[in-house]
Amino acid sequence: MSVEPARIILVDDHPLVRDGLRARLDSVPHLRVTGEAGNANEALALAASETAPPDLALMDVGMAGMSGIELAARFHEQFPGIRVLMLSMHDNIEYVKQAMRAGASGYVLKDSPAAEIIQAIDAVLAGKTFFSAGLASRLFQAQSMQTPLERLTPRELDILDALAEGLSSKQIAQQHGLSVRTVETHRLNLKRKLDIDGQAELIKFAVEHRRT
C-alpha cells in the first residue's frame, strides 16, 4: 500500500528562495510541495484549502507585512493540525523563543545543508521538534527556566481556562469561533506540552492553574 507524500507549502516573500526550496524538496519522494505563498494572506488561503490542506508550512521569519512569527501564531490558532517549521537567516535565540511561543514546531537556518532542512521537515511531520545545530542547547537552557504555563501559546492558555470552567470542546469552539476538531487538536497539544496523559488530569491542571 503506497503512502501519500506529505503536503508542504512554502511561505517566503522571495521567489528565488521558494524556487530553490521547491527544486530541492521535489526531489524527495515522500515530500511534495503543493503550494507557495509570498505573504500572509496567500499562506492563510492555502492553509484553508478543504480539498488538500497542507501537512506542513515551511515559513520564513522575516517577511514584509505580517512577520512569519505572527503568521505562525495565526496558523496555530486557526489550523493547529498544520505543522509550522520556521526557516530563517537569523541565528537569534529570542526569535526562536518567539516562534515556539507562537506555536512553531521547529526553527532551521537558511544556510543549513539541504539534508538538515529535510531532516527538520521529517522530524516536525513526525510530531517532534527540530532546531539547527547550536540553537537547541541555547533554547534548552532558556526553556529550563520557564514554568509549564510559560511554554503555552496564548490560544492554548485560553483553551486551558475554558476547560477549567468545565466547558466542552463544542462549547469552547463556539466561544472562540473555532471548529470542534481545532479545539480537540489544541487539547492534544496541551497534554503533550504539559506531559499529561488523561483528560481528567488535564482538567485538574486547568482548574489548579486557572488565570481568572
Automatic annotation (TrEMBL):
Domain HTH luxR-type: start-end pairs: 145-210
Domain Response regulatory, chain residue ranges per copy: 7-125
Sites of 4-aspartylphosphate modification: 60
Pfam families: GerE (PF00196), Response_reg (PF00072)
Signal peptide coordinates: none
GO molecular function: DNA binding
GO biological process: phosphorelay signal transduction system; regulation of DNA-templated transcription
Keyword Cytoplasm applies: no
Keyword DNA damage attributed: no
Keywords: DNA-binding, Phosphoprotein, Transcription, Transcription regulation
InterPro entries per record: CheY-like_superfamily, NreC/VraR/RcsB-like_REC, Sig_transdc_resp-reg_C-effctor, Sig_transdc_resp-reg_receiver, Tscrpt_reg_LuxR_C, WalR-like
Superkingdom of the organism of origin: Bacteria
PANTHER family: NITRATE_NITRITE RESPONSE REGULATOR PROTEIN NARP, TWO-COMPONENT RESPONSE REGULATOR
Name under which the protein is recorded: Two component LuxR family transcriptional regulator
